[in-house]
């Protein structure tokens, strides 16, 4: 059962962060600087199959422990 299936209709404000607070990790390797961004899962309609989105979430959660979701369909008023 998913969160929506359980009747969830709101997102706790703890999980909502403004774009300017995005996490950027800068790692230096010799003279090379690498900017690492946490994975972004795009749930836009028609873009990816449900199976692909689930696999992206599984990979992001297993590798990073967290991820950002965009185009999720939650109304701006609710956010």
From TrEMBL:
Claim: Metal-binding is one of the keywords in the record: yes
Start and end residues of each Non-haem dioxygenase N-terminal domain: 39-79
A GO term, aspect molecular function: metal ion binding
Any Pfam family the entry gives: DIOX_N
Superkingdom, natural source: Eukaryota
Protein name in the entry: Non-haem dioxygenase N-terminal domain-containing protein
Keyword Metal-binding: yes
UniProt keyword terms in alphabetical order: Iron, Metal-binding
